[in-house]
Amino acid sequence: MAARFSELVIDSRDPEALAAWWAEVLGYRVLGRDEDGAVEIGPEAGFGGAAPTLVFTPVGEYETAKSRLHVDLNATDRDQDAELQRLLDLGATRADVGQTGEESWHVLADPEGNPFCLLRRRLHPL
Fold first, then answer.
1. Domain spanning 69-125: CATH 3.30.920
2. Which DSSP category does 63 fall into?
3. Which of 27, 25, 8 is nearest to 84 (CA)?
């Protein structure tokens, strides 16, 4: 028996805006909204499918400590350079976490400054 990674909860200053941004990046849709302001996005299949859902929860105070978790992305329908440009056009920014410049991936940040990486290898869409 094993566990499955089903969803990732992300603290956010503006859950609606950040959920919309990540939905655009990942090709997800809004699955639901809670009374507390949380927004869940996920693939068309919804919760429990092959890909995890993301839940953006509102926080009053935002931590400024280094994040111990980040997301890695892979392009599905274009090469890494084209996907990098798409992400930058959507509002991602380049981030410096101490990389040397020789890496095969790019370190970026979403509109709220959460770091993520764009890896080189292209994956098949789900």
1. no
2. -
3. 25
Q: Which of 114, 104, 110 is nearest to 81 (CA)?
A: 104
Q: Which two tokens stand for residue 28?
A: 């997800």
Residue 68 contacts residue 46 (beta carbons within 8 Å)? no
Give 42-60 pLDDT, tens digit per residue: 999 888 888 999 999 999 7
Assigned CATH for 1-58: 3.10.180.10
Residue 26 token pair? 């990942």
Q: Rounded to an integer, what distance in angstroms lies between the CA atom of residue 19 and that of residue 29?
A: 9
Q: b/e map of 6-23 (b: 16 or more CB within 10 Å)?
A: eeeebbbeebeebbbbbb
Please say whether the dihedral angle defined by the alpha carbons of residues 74, 79, 83 and 85, taken in this order, is positive or negative: positive
- Tally the C-alpha atoms within 13 A of residue 2's C-alpha that lie toward its C-beta: 3
Indicate yes or no: pTM above 0.85.
yes
